[in-house]
Amino acid sequence: MSLNITALTPVFCAEVSGVDLRLPLEDAIFDEIREVLDAYSILIIPGEPLDDDQQVAFSERFGPLERTLGANPASGTAFARQSNLDMKSGDIIPTDDKRMHYQQANMLWHADSSYKPMPSLCSVLSAREVPPDGGATEFASTRAAYESLSDAAKSKIDDAVVEHDIVYSRGLVGFEFPKEIGDANPPARHPLVQTNPVTGRKSVLIGAHAKRIIGWSDDESRAMLDDLLERAAAPENAYSHAWRNGDVVIWDNRAALHRATPYDHTRHRRLMQRTTIGNPAVIETYGAYPAIAEA
Question: What is the pTM of this model?
Answer without folding.
Answer: 0.92
